Amino acid sequence: MPGEGKHQRSYDFLLAPLERRLLPKLAEALPAWVVPDHLTLLGLIASTGIGLSYYLSNHNEAWLWAASLLLVVNWFGDSLDGTLARVRRIERPRYGFYLDHLMDAYSTFMIGMGLGLSPYMLLAVGLAIVIAYLLLSINVYLETHVFGEFNLGYALIGPTEVRVILIALNIIALEIGPLPFGIRGFGATVFDVVGVLGVFGMITMLCARAFQNLRTLARMEPPRRPTSAD
Fold this sequence. Notes:
By secondary structure, this protein is mainly alpha-helical. It has helices at residues 16-29, 36-56, 63-88, 93-116, 123-147, 159-176, 190-220; strands at 8-10, 149-151, 180-183, 186-189. Helix 2 runs antiparallel to helix 3, helix 3 (63-88) packs antiparallel against helix 6 (159-176) and helix 5 runs parallel beside helix 7 (190-220).
């Protein structure tokens, strides 16, 4: 991402140590004419393609291969734009923070809608995933403002891990199909069940972190009693 302002960045998710070693090397290998905005645009195009690929899997399941490939392209663009700016020392903190998270919201919407319009997930479940993910993101932005620390990951799961999970689900879908799953006559798939469990997991993590944040803020700013005017 092009930058996150002057906030301290904290990444604790599972693949972060690997990315910290790999991304600077990839950034240094890029030609001089490539700039961070090019990579941001690449990630945006890839996320649009992911949504379309999921939708087109209604006609041919082979589009899931395209979705998986574009998830890798999206990771490349979304993860490298800020790394490239930092390696070259050309950061634009406020511009980068705004643009990066605006693109993240768009990408989340496109991928969730694509999944919901595919034969593998109900639209309601896809939209629920989008809403839950955006709520987690909003909480991150609020934390950035009140604590001065940008901590994107929740319980070792960050954007890169989500992409890996999606690629794994795509491979499973190609191998065994949507796996119909009925609950009292209500038609769904196993992927819907996984999606619903994921939504409940995200909401649980959000509530836990919000409770922890409020306890910390209450210690920093204890309740004050009103003073009587003379």
